[in-house]
Amino acid sequence: MVLVTDLYEGGDSREMRKKFVKRSLALALAFTIAFGETGYVLAEEPAQTVEFDISDGDAGEPGAPADVSGGDGTEVPGEDADKPGENEDVSAGDVSGNVPETSGELEEMFPGLTEEYALTAAGMEDKTILGNYAQEWGGAEEGVDYAESEILVEAETEEEANAYAQAFNGTLTDYFFGVAVITLNADDSLPEASVKDAVYASSLEEMALPAAWPNYYRYIEDVDAEEIVEEQTYDFAAAEEEESGGQEEEEFMGTDGYNDPFLTTTNGGYQWQHSVLNSQLAWAAGYRGKGVKVAVLDTGILAGHDDVSAVKTIDVGYGTADGHGHGTHVSGIIGAKLNNGTGGAGVAPECYIYSIKVLRDTGSGASSTIIKGVNQAVNNRVDIINMSLGGALYSKVEADAYQRAYEAGIAVFCAAGNEFSNSAHYPAAYKSTISVAALDKSMGKAYFSNYDSGVRYSAPGVDIYSTYKDSASSYKSMSGTSQATPVTAGAAAVIWATLPSNLSGKAKVDALLKKMDSSCSKVTGKGLGKGCIDLAKALGLTNNEAAPKKPEFVTKPGTYTSTSIRVAIKSPDPDCIIYYSTDGKPVTYKNGKLSDNALQYSSTNGGITVGNQANVTVYAIALKRSNRLVSPALSGRFTFKPKVSSIAITSTNGVSTLAQGTSLTLKAACTPDYAPDKKITWSLERYNNNTASDNDPKVTGVSINASGKVTASKTALTGTYLITAKMANNNSVKKTFTIKVCAVSSNPVTSITTKTKSVTVNTGAAFTLAATDVTVTRKNKTTYNGSSLSWTIEDSSIASMTKNNGNVVITGNKAGKTKLVGVATDGSGKMVTIPITVKQAVTSVTIANSGTAMCVRQGKSVKLTANVFPTTAANKKVKWSYSPAREGITVVNGVVKAAKNAKPCNITVTATAADGSGASANYVISIIEEEKNTTLTVDKKSVDIFRTTNNKGAATSATVAVNCSSPYWSATSSAPGLVSVTGSGSKLTIKATGNGTGTATVTVATTDGTNKKATIKVTVKNPATNLMISPQGGRSNYVAKGTTLKLIPTFETASGKVNADAKKLTWTSSNPSAVKVDNQGRVTGMSDRSYKVTITAKTNDGSNLVATYVVVSCDKVKKIKVGYARAYSLEVGEVGSGRLYETGTSYGTCSYAVDVKSNKEGLTVGYTVSNGYPYITFAGNKVGTYTVTVSCIDGSSAKATYKVIVKPKSK
After folding, report:
1. Which residues touch 318 (CB under 8 Å, ≥6 apart)?
2. For 1070-1095, how does the pLDDT look when each residue is reduced to its tens digit (9 = 90+)?
3. Residue 16 in 3-state DSSP?
4. Would you call 298 a catalytic residue per the annotation?
5. Catalytic choice (482, 571, 1069, 1191)
6. What is the mean pLDDT of the chain?
7. Spatial contact of 378 and 408, defined as CB atoms under 8 Å apart
8. Residue-wise pLDDT tens digits, 976-1010
9. Cα separation of 373 and 370, whole Å?
10. SS3 for 283?
11. Where are the strands (E) in 497-630, listed by range?
12. What is the pTM of this model?
């Protein structure tokens, strides 16, 4: 916001002052668009001041300087007191000269209220408040500063509003939300009354009239872009036509996967506010302000703009179309579409914009229209209101409207103002609104921004690109608290969408502000509130430099009664890959490499399947794609206690026949086997039983105990028996097994023996137990082989068996131990048991560096290394051999040695697994002639490369020259997860894998046995992704001769934290004779004339970033004065101003760059430029004595101080 007034130079000075006061009175109250001003900032150096006593007389004309302190710190005395015009007052004039002097005259004009509508105590208080501002409306001009014949009165009902209209001899022309618009002079038989008559009469206690306010016009004037701040307009449709000749181009993708050009740092319209707010992190996590309703009370909006579509327009009297451009710009900052291939994006790209035009295309609007707009927003139940407009003075009618919005649950964000001062601005300073100041790219106070204790937040407000009115594809850069406010309102919309749905009314606004308060990042400068909103902090996300937070179990660890579950895991941070393990070992990520047990998580079908065993510990980590940093490990134990679902019955010896006088043990296997309750009850019955006694063990002689052991007595009834196993806790789960009891054989088996006492077999391999290896002996001493035995393996998961012509073929399945059991089938129960050991076999063998050409010179040797897989192989030994055999060549334990007499040739070296699996690997080696004095050097001992590139082409690889007298060399990386290497001839390429940052050692070594080597230290780092430079907090771009200004570099680090060397810059000046710069970015003014000088900063670390900033040289100020008055005396409600004068030390060009500050609330001060002339403005709001300080902010130390007395209004 800028308060711009029409100030006059030349002509009669007294008449000029009257015109100025009258004009500035209204404009001090005007609601104005918040554009930025020229580069004016706080003075860096303190100065001694001289304060003058305040005279109660008129302020002086030219010839009476203000209090000044010299640029060199010496006191500068005032001019002589008897100069012409010394005692002229700057007050707006006595109201009594403009209105009837007696209440009798007023009573003739206004009938007054009937007793039925007598004023309450609150109504009388409103009259008192109105009276306090008498000098404001008393000095205003009807038809210029407020609407002719119209007043505003608050009324609870339309009936009451009509009664008030009659009391003022008026007509109720509009009534909305408790505000009555009354047109005066309804009955022309009564004396004609002016607005000033009505307002004055209503302020008198004795008049039976409610408090009435003028319907002020609210003014803004566009700031001259050349004079104040450079503004750039961009039309995408035209630009694309020009750049591509009308041809379609390949889609442009932003740095984080979005195709909006302004989200890319290389684009001239780069929207840097998103980096400050961490908007893209919020968007990636799904936080985009979806469904939040944001009302923009401004100059309307361009219908059909390509980048803003979710819009509802509301007409409150000025239409809806934007003929100014400001409203369209503000709307785009909040809610421009994301990822649509054009322009940029709003902070809350999925919010819904309510555009309410309360300002005309000229930038002005009536107070009644603004209030109506606020109330329309309330009626439409919006969540947030953005008001990038404002004025210097208080209005109770407006204050009540904002209070109603707050109580309705609407957060109202307002611009703090651009008056270079610490004064309050309205509506930003109302109790129920939220004031926003502007920041520059150094995260310091923007030079033009107001600042005070009433500011709650600050946000980027310089060079903000957004949508504009010129066409459906046009964009423009603007600066001001007008831009900082929608940046904050957009962030609020994103946060609003996360608030609990059960909140409403002002409690929801309070909850929003509490969350915003706790999520601010620090900024530089005083009076900037709690700082700038960090959406990452507000939403519980980590920023681009930090490792991600620990993943979270969506499915909570604990005990489950199912056999397995789907376990869902999430990362609190977006853009992360989750890796997990279920083997009981943590998953790790080190030097760019994942542990072998790491599995990539997918949320498909609800997550990963966990279970099928009693306990499973799940470990998980989150790996952030942007910076390749890993989170702390998550772990959780899942316990499963299902019920048994099925039973399987087997006999322990593999047979189902038992002879009289023997026993047989049955085994029940429960599924799942990890069920905690596996208690089983056994029962037995005889087939074809006709009576119950047939099942009585005493009768049958066959019984089964609780452990499943079946016993047949010597007199047991032969036949078939049915065994049933049931779950004790669920009889419906059961299984039956049939056995046969037979008579004792007359020639039973008495023993079984085998020549094979144990079996050892590799996985995948087979062992055959010949039937002839087994001897079965009967009672009569006759024998036979094992072909008739019943063979089983206790654990078929470890080994399995088949029978082939009576032989038993055993195959190893997995490493472990089990048993092979052979049982006689005659019921004798005789058996033989053979232990089985299954060992993990070698499945493959590799020879390290098998892809590298290797040779052995005569008289030298090389060492080959064999790798055996899997790593769990039981026998990792290999046998080395080579072919064809040659004299003088040996291969022992991988060492290939060529004697001096060995003839040049090629041999094939073979490493064969010693476990008999047959796995092997070959390596061809050349035997070559002897070479003396082999040399190997590299041209770089260390290289720095970037993990990933940026938009300026930061290098992710480096080339090293290898000078080797032998063509046989290779390179290896100590951390292949971070750095890969390839090389041939005399060139070695070192490349970052992109998996992480850190250091690695690359070793270049000969491979001919000469054992020459060289090492290179490789540092992998993150590149900075953007560089911006701005003046130190609050400073302008003016640099007075002999003074310094520190330029602050700001780095964006979208790819992760950068090293310290990334921030070392080279600084240059385009005109050192006017402004020079040192290697720390400190510029020094060298000229007392005005020259625009471009300061350039470049990175030195290879990230290729460049930033520029334009500074302006000027003379150092030795004197400041405001007008020609020695002192100022104002009444409450009065507005005054004084022309700002600066005198240079060398009488050169001065900057007129100042900050204006009042020592306490109650006096509104500001700085403005009108018709090319600078002015200091101030308005009295509260009785008291104030100190106003006007400070140079171009590096000069000069300042002027005034004591200003604000007196009660005249009676």
Report:
1. 300, 357, 358, 359, 360, 365, 369
2. 999 999 999 999 999 999 999 999 99
3. helix
4. yes
5. 482
6. 85
7. yes
8. 999 999 998 899 999 999 999 999 999 999 999 99
9. 5
10. helix
11. 520-521, 532-533, 552-553, 558-560, 564-567, 569-570, 576-581, 589-590, 593-594, 599-600, 608-611, 615-624
12. 0.76
Q: Residues, the chain, total?
A: 1211
Find the distance separating the first CA and the last CA of the chain, reported in whole Å.
34
> What does the CA dihedral 898, 904, 905, 910 come to, rounded to 10 degrees?
10
Query: What does the pLDDT average to over 926-936?
Result: 90
d(CA 438, CA 432): 20
Query: Which of the residues 326, 388, 519, 973 is marked catalytic?
Result: 326
55 bridge partner residues: none
Predicted confidence (pLDDT) per residue in 366-411, tens digit: 888 999 999 999 999 999 999 999 877 678 889 999 999 999 999 9
Confidence of residue 492 (pLDDT cuts 50, 70, 90): very high
Q: Which two tokens stand for residue 923?
A: 């390596």
Instruction: State how far the Cα of 38 lies from the Cα of 1036, in Å rounded to an integer.
Output: 8
Query: What's the Cα-to-Cα distance from 334 to each of 264, 310, 409, 892, rounded to whole Å?
Result: 18, 11, 19, 74
CA 301 to chain CA mean position, Å: 29
Classify burial at 156, counting beta carbons within 10 Å of its beta carbon; exposed 0-12, middle 13-18, buried 19 or more: exposed
- 803 Cα distance to chain centroid: 67
Q: One-letter amino acid identity for 46?
A: P
Please identify which residue in the block is written with the tokens 């190893």.
812
Q: Three-class SS string for 645-679?
A: CEEEEEECCCCCEEECCCEEEEEEEEECCCCCCCC
Active-site residue (options: 298, 575, 826, 915): 298
CA distances from 538 to 348, 529, 559 (A): 14, 17, 34
Strands (E), 995-1073: 998-1006, 1013-1021, 1026-1031, 1038-1040, 1044-1052, 1065-1069
Cα torsion 1117, 1118, 1123, 1127 to 10°: value is 140
Of 812, 820, 829, the closest CA to residue 756 belongs to 820
Check if the beta carbon of residue 1027 is closer than 8 Å to that of residue 1099: yes
| The pLDDT of residue 232 is above 90 | no
| 761 sits in which H/E element | strand 759-762
Burial 160-175 (b: 16+ CB within 10 A, else e): bbbbbbbbbbbbbebb
Shortest CA distance to 652 belongs to which of 576, 690, 709? 709
